[in-house]
Amino acid sequence: MKKLIWGLVPWALLWTTALLATGPAKSSPPGQPIRFQLEAETFQLSNGMTFVLAPRGGAPTFAGYIAFRVGGVDSVPGDTGLAHMFEHMAFKGTQHMGTTDWAKEKPILDEIQDVGDSLTVLKAEGKGTPEELQKMAARLKELMSEDRKYIVKDEHDKLMTQAGGRAINASTGEDYTQYFVMLPSNALELWMLLESQRIREPVMREFYSERDVIAQERLMRTDNDPMGKLYEQFLATAFMAHPYRLPTIGWPSDVPALTMKQAQDFYFKYYSPSNAVGVLVGNFDTKAVKALVERYFGDIPRRGNPPPIVTREPAQEHERRVTVLFDASPQMLVGWHKPAWPNPDDTRMDLAASVLGDGLTSRLYKRLVEKDRLASDVSASNGEPGGRYDNLFMVFMTPNSEVPYEKVEKALFEEIDRMRAEPVSGAELEKAKTRILATYLRRLDSPLSTAMLIGSTFAVTGDWKNICKYVVEVQKVTAQDIKAAASAYLTAENRTVAELVKPTQAPREVNP
Amino acid sequence: MRRHVLAALLCAAAIAALAQGAALPMRPEQLPRPVSLTFTPPQVIRETLPGGMTLLMLPDHALPLVKLYALIKAGSIYDPPDKKGLAEIAGAALGTSGSAQYPADKMQETLEALAAQLQTSIGEEYGQVSLDLLSKDLPTGLPIFADLLMHPAYAEDKLSLEKTRAIEDLKRQSEEPWLITEIETKKVLYGSDSPWARTPQAKDIEKITREDVLAFHRRYFLPSNTTLAAAGDFDPNRLSQEVRKLLGGWPGRKADFPPVAPAPEEDKPAVVIMDKPDLTQATIFVAELTGKRGRGETFNQDRYAMDVMNFILGGGGFTSRLTKEIRSNRGLAYSVGSQYSFSTDRGPFAARCQTGIGTAGEATALIRDALKAMTEKPPSEEEVALAKESLINVFVFSYQNAGRIVYQSGAQDFYGFPKDYMATYPDRIRKITADDCLKVAQEYLHPEKMVYFVLGPAQKLKEPMQTFGPVEVKPLPEP
């Protein structure tokens, strides 16, 4: 039995979902519903920016969160890494922040852009004489140290830190870029000032030194991390056409070729308030916060809508495989193409992922780790690498050393075939539903994870209330639904397999 | 007529001025001063049960969830030299291999069907068992939790699985640069056989038997040695009654702890390269042993100045000196910072960063210079003010989550923090001066006696690292 109650009051939307868990929990008091309740108020400013406010009691703190619907997926070959680069720049200040004298700094920054961008383009194209390049690099260095005279180092971070900010950070994914912080409640207006200002008038300050920082970040996350590298190659193989194939951190060739001009153009294209959502969760007075939001964010000019992504991944007709050479222990990834939410199959595949790979009693853990001792870990994830467009259902496996990959994948494919051939048991279905519901409930446990849940759902689906819609939808799925979806997508021709192999080891021959 | 025009102009000017007065603030200085926050932290209910177990409870009905934690004094520092890895395996297998009343598979099925999360682990000095569940399932979960604490089964097949998984993890350790560098730096600081640094090898783990883990449990899992903490959606009176009923039969002996070899008194400088030729990024630790935590009356009062000093040096994110120099000014690293801990014995300090192989020498020198500067001159008034303000303002987050409040109060009891530690922390920070920071930096940081540890290709790192002393090249540890 499912019940959905919601009421609409002027500029306030209270959304409540009450669900009845009917799992095999025989010893629990029968008939007790699990309540999933998320109350928040939504409003839109005249420039199109949406805000969601979810006040709650407890310590006088709040989580402040802003997301823009732009990420790695919005890049094209040549500018990969740009969304992430811009995210770093958003911490470098504005015309009023991070500078002692904007009027004097501006001409220097303009010249830095002239010299730096020209140098970048020449280098990327392999043009320019060594003397020429050297001269430009020397001039750039000179200008950068000139600029430093006016820079107030990392002032955005400093002000948030001083006010008691925690988790002052941002992240860029395939689908969206998010900026977040937890602050004491007496710093609400400071948050408004800093966040609205960097949306309104960001300055590409210290662009070139930050580009070097990102090169180091890539070394850490991808080039020196076996899993990072495997995942990157896996996506580039599974997707041939759709930009989900492009790494959010950027290809090693693209990051050093990014220019200040590109970053500015990117800002005008994607950082329109109508492409953003602000979320505040915590201990505050909603009325006062609304007034502050209107005041600080209301006058940011609306810009055009970002260009749509028209490319669709063509249907995959044969199994694809990729091998990554790395002096590291075994890792294996398998992924299958499938549609994204709101296609109902997406929710069905969430349940399939739970039955297959969530917990010590999941099918894959029982079979591969416990019974056959082929792997030390296994998990399944639906919706990789993002949710805005059709995506992948994935299984991540950590084969035990010295176990041949053939054996591991044979066992996996047998379990996959079982998912396609027969419906999951009633107990498995109920367990999966309860576990997904509990995961969502636990995300409400902290103001920041609540804000992230609301904001990311907005960025991916266009409406945060889809959280509640989804939670209800999960409870309606039947064993037959899961079987039908598994059987449609988890086929041999639709899958991509990636494996990590030591350079000393010859890649194996596979006849698909 | 003219006068009228003038009046109208003046009027317009006044409106403009007014509008300007109400203009959007562009700088934080234009904002009203933040009001001071008034907040009464929730009171944790504290009971001592027969048998000596402490029970901490903090009801919070915001969500239908309950978190249970048991903190048990037991750890790898007490492992006999020929049983390395015992505490770790006893901890990992505890939660997966069942109990007297609930055989492993049945226990896992029951808990996972309820979406309850059971986690068990044993670290250096204490172990923890936690169960996170929906509050409606507390009547099912609590008896399982209690039976597991008192009568774990350590079923042979599940124990052997956990051993296999632990060995597999060991083989992968050297593929995680931060992790392996931290483990190996500690071995240089404490000595590789020290209880505070040693790690098991595959052959040690293979040797561990069911009888070993059962004996481990018998020796340390005792009510007098345990703090139980609960937070969330429950009635404390009922929970207390249930706990008394379920854990009433737990034998009330005192645990006896073997002596633990002390950490070295003297710091021995060293420059070590751990050779991993395939890496294109170096992981650098500049480390030394600092002070002891102390208990109750002997609680180390330098902690407060150390918190401020380390914040300025490398703990305070972008505002810290290390981040400013190495990341922000020079673009040499993405992650860089410093941390310290006062432990039961001398705890480690480490400044660390990851940088390209070609810039490893430069980054290490910058770390060394930053450490030196910290011991030579008091930090600026501005740095001290920022650090203090931040540490004081951020303190309210210690009370943000009921689970965290009971857990930290259990951990602070365990370590012998003064009773008024939380209540007085902001005031103690407020009193710290720039000279206090210099004093603790001189007391605990000695750049000339530190251990410089780098993970990366030795062939390329040897020359730049020679600047810091005679270099010793080590191979990756055998798993």
Quick recap of the structure?
The complex is a heterodimer of chains A (512) and B (479). Chain A is α+β, with helices and mostly antiparallel strands and 512 residues long. Chain A contains 16 helices and 14 strands.
What features would you describe in this structure?
The complex is a heterodimer of chains A (512) and B (479). Chain A is α+β, with helices and mostly antiparallel strands and 512 residues long. Chain A has two domains: 61-98 and 152-297, Cytochrome Bc1 Complex, Chain A, domain 1, CATH 3.30.830.10; 320-501, 2-Layer Sandwich (Cytochrome Bc1 Complex, Chain A, domain 1). In chain A, 43% of the residues lie in helices and 20% in strands. Chain A is built from 16 helices and 14 strands. A six-stranded mixed beta sheet of chain A has the order 4-5-9-6-8-7, with helices on both faces. Chain B is an alpha+beta fold and 479 residues long. Chain B folds into two domains: 45-247, Metalloenzyme, LuxS/M16 peptidase-like (Cytochrome Bc1 Complex, Chain A, domain 1, 2-Layer Sandwich); 270-474, 2-Layer Sandwich (Cytochrome Bc1 Complex, Chain A, domain 1), CATH 3.30.830. Helices cover 43% and strands 17% of the residues of chain B. Chain B is built from 17 helices and twelve strands. In chain B, the strands form two sheets. A six-stranded mixed beta sheet of chain B has the order 1-2-6-3-5-4, with helices on both faces. In chain B, strands 9-10-8-11-7-12 form a six-stranded mixed beta sheet, with helices on both faces. Chain B is globular, with a radius of gyration of 27 Å. Classes of the chains: A alpha+beta (512), B alpha+beta (479). The interface between A and B is large, with 89 and 77 residues.
Keywords:
heterodimer; A: about 500 residues; alpha+beta; Cytochrome Bc1 Complex, Chain A, domain 1; 2 domains; six-stranded mixed β-sheet; five-stranded mixed β-sheet; 16 helices; 14 strands; about 45% helix; disordered N terminus; B: about 475 residues; 17 helices
